[in-house]
Amino acid sequence: MTATPVYLSCALPEQALTPLEGLCRLEVGKEGLPLHAGAPPPGADACQGVVCLLTDRVDRALLARLPALRFVSSISVGVDHVDVAALTERGIPLGHTPGVLVDATADTAFALLLAAARRVAEGDRFIRAGQWRPEARWAPDFFLGRDLAGATLGIVGLGEIGRAVARRARAFGMRVVAWNRTPRDEPGVELLGLDELLAHSDFVSVHVALAEQTRGLLDAARIARMKEGAILVNTARGGIVDEAALAAALDRGQLFAAGLDVFASEPLAADSALLAHPRVVLTPHVGSATPATRGAMVKLAVANARAALQGRPMPHCVNPEVY
Ligand code: GLV
User: Fold this and answer.
1) Quick check: CB of 79 below 6 Å from ligand 1?
2) Above 90 in pLDDT, residue 295?
3) What pLDDT, on a 0 to 100 scale, did the predictor assign at position 33?
4) How many Å lie between the centroid of ligand 1 and the Cα of residue 53?
5) Cis amide linkage into residue 267, ω under 30° from 0
6) Is residue 94 helix, strand or coil?
7) Measured in angstroms, how far is the CA atom of residue 230 from the centroid of ligand 1?
């Protein structure tokens, strides 16, 4: 057994770690204690590798405490929690887990879209609160939601997940339009400018990665351009949408509902304005949360770490220019 110290941010099943056997000595982090500059790995000076989660903060301040670091492997596709430029400057590869969470995340987006359109969470709360009584019962205008068939879905970010959502939407009889920073062809999807998409879409689903260029992409001005009665779904990253502007648009009745799996700050603060609106459907960042998908993500992250420990390029590297 070599003594190469590698920090693993959370406990993983022993079987998943077999590929790292004999290549390193794993130091496993404590549950619920994210890694950040104020809480570096034990023995930070000697740490040569980090296998992290999207809840960790791998920024310049943390990296300054890891002088021996040779690789970072994140169990996530998104890497906005990592300062990629700082890693690249030091020639350190960053691994991530693309591809394997496409269908699970697209399913989550669609679950939120349907739940927001048909007021599923609101109906559930209504019944549990004992409000479904003879004087509040089935009537032609009782608990009306929104139709999907014939409606327009605007996809912001036509990457793999955006395209998987487009396929689901077409099966529901929706017209699909999309905006992507670099034009991209997808059968049955019309590309539009972002403002035009927002003005014409009955549903908008966000699928861009969070980066400098997309932080606050759906700001107050863009939300104000959205169609009257539209529904916004976000399963990408909270920082892409101005949450205060979204809450205000819901309050003034411009937007009908929202389905949100991601938030600017997670866990969501108890005083978030989003919690006050009955037509906001919330899930706690579970886009990829199925056993098969999470298992596949761990497998890719471990494969990335194994390659780095063996001195090979990572199979899924965010900054391959380091090689
Ligand atoms: C999930 O949000 C991921 O980036 O994997």
Assistant:
1) no
2) yes
3) 87
4) 9
5) yes
6) strand
7) 26
